[in-house]
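Milestone 3.1: sequence recovery, worked example.
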């Protein structure tokens, strides 16, 4: 195999990102790719996981403002980039990230109506010039996504509690951005679980074959 690549899995809550990560692990094993790591955003470092807990927790005593949410997300990303992602890619690891920049534009710009220019400034500030070699986008309607979240979880977090209107806006921003990306795999996850899993595996393995020696 050639040197490692940076792969990002994107989609709204309930789209199946964790499932996709499991499928990619099996594909890597099939292709005998040993140098691989999987990370999640926010999270995957001690500091970033603490930030994740703040962002996900339903705090009735103090409401988290949208700008605080934005800054916390970028703080977590900065920790992850400098401590894990950049060193791993430098050492030829394949890095799979559950969310990255595209999530910020979808949720913060699309969902929270924060101007895109502020996100671009933060990207520059944390020196995030790492672009994915591949983005796997899992598309799902908010209505179906919410049903799946409620089916698998007894308690939903602060983000998952947001309105259907919010997630409609997030999804629309995702679609706007992903349609401009030439390095993508588009998966319709409104389908049955079996069909979705088969589709991810088929398309990813087809992409992966390009990097065989």
């Amino acid at each position: 195999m050639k040197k490692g690549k940076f792969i990002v899995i994107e989609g709204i809550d309930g789209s199946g990102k964790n499932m996709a990560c499991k499928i990619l692990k099996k594909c890597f094993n099939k292709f005998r790719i040993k140098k691989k790591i999987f990370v999640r955003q926010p999270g995957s470092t001690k500091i970033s996981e603490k930030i994740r807990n703040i962002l996900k927790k339903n705090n009735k005593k103090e409401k988290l403002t949208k700008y605080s949410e934005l800054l916390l997300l970028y703080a977590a990303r900065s920790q992850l980039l400098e401590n894990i992602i950049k060193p791993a890619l430098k050492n030829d690891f394949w890095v799979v990230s559950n969310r990255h920049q595209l999530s910020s534009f979808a949720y913060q710009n699309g969902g929270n109506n924060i101007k895109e220019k502020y996100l671009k400034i933060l990207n520059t500030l944390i020196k995030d010039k790492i672009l994915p070699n591949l983005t796997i986008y899992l598309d799902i309607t908010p209505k179906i996504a919410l049903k799946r979240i409620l089916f698998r979880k007894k308690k939903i977090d602060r983000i998952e509690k947001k309105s259907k209107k919010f997630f409609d806006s997030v999804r629309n921003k995702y679609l706007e951005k992903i349609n401009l990306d030439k390095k993508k795999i588009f998966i319709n996850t409104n389908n049955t679980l079996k069909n979705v899993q088969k589709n991810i595996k088929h398309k990813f393995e087809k992409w992966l074959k390009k990097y065989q020696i």
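Residues 6-41+92-119+132-211 form a domain with the Rossmann fold fold (CATH 3.40.50.300). Residues 28 and 34 are 7 Å apart (CA to CA).
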